[in-house]
Amino acid sequence: MAEKKITSLSELKKYSKGVVVEFPPFGEGQPFVARIKRPSLMKLAVEGKIPNELLTKANELFASDGSGINPRDNNMMQNIKAVIDIIAEASFIEPTYSEIKENVELTDDQMMFLFNYTQQGVKALSDFRTDKKD
Questions:
Q1: How far is CA 84 from CA 7, 58, 111, 131, 133, in A?
Q2: Backbone angles phi, psi at 26, to 5 degrees
Q3: Alpha helix (H) residue ranges in 4-46
Q4: What are the tens digits of pLDDT across the range 4-48?
Q5: Cα–Cα distance between 61 and 79 in angstroms, integer?
Q6: Fewest beta carbons within 10 Å, which of 44, 50, 64, 125?
Q7: 70 in helix, strand or coil?
Q8: Whole-angstrom distance between the N-terminal and C-terminal Cα of the chain?
Q9: How far apart are CA 51 and CA 48, in angstroms?
Q10: In whole angstroms, what is the distance from residue 131 CA to residue 13 CA?
Q11: Which DSSP string do the residues of 90-130 spell out, in sequence order?
């Protein structure tokens, strides 16, 4: 069994600058590639970037048992959108989320892709990488 190698600080610094990821395209022939990072939701909450009224919703949204969506909650979609916007703001490095919003609206697929990536990392990309046959 191979001995595990300690991660160097230079590797950690490189990782903290984000990774270049290909998102689902805007449309046929319109790819979207950006540099993003995986933000800490705890840090966002502690810094007050996730408002108290959304903390419960964020917690429900990230529930591992799949119980995060309550169809009887009339504000569910607004709360989900608010939490994902906060995550997007903290995730996009290049271009920034502000720059994106000034010029184009991300698709639902792209927003869910980002959400999945921030929660699961590279393994979340595998669902989006499969070539779909007609």
A1: 30, 9, 7, 26, 30
A2: -70, -35
A3: 9-16, 41-46
A4: 999 999 998 888 889 999 999 998 899 999 999 999 888 888 888
A5: 9
A6: 64
A7: coil
A8: 44
A9: 6
A10: 33
A11: HHEEES-HHHHHHH-PPPHHHHHHHHHHHHHGGGGGHHHHS
**27-34 long-range CB contacts below 8 Å, 24 or more apart?**
32/110, 34/92, 34/93, 34/94, 34/95
pTM for the model stands at 0.75
> Which residue, chain included where needed, has tokens 């779909």?
132
Question: With 0-12 CB in 10 A as exposed, 13-18 as middle and 19+ as buried, what is 68?
Answer: middle
| Contact yes or no for 107/30 (Cβ under 8 A) | no
Q: In this structure, how many other beta carbons lie within 10 angstroms of the beta carbon of residue 85?
A: 13
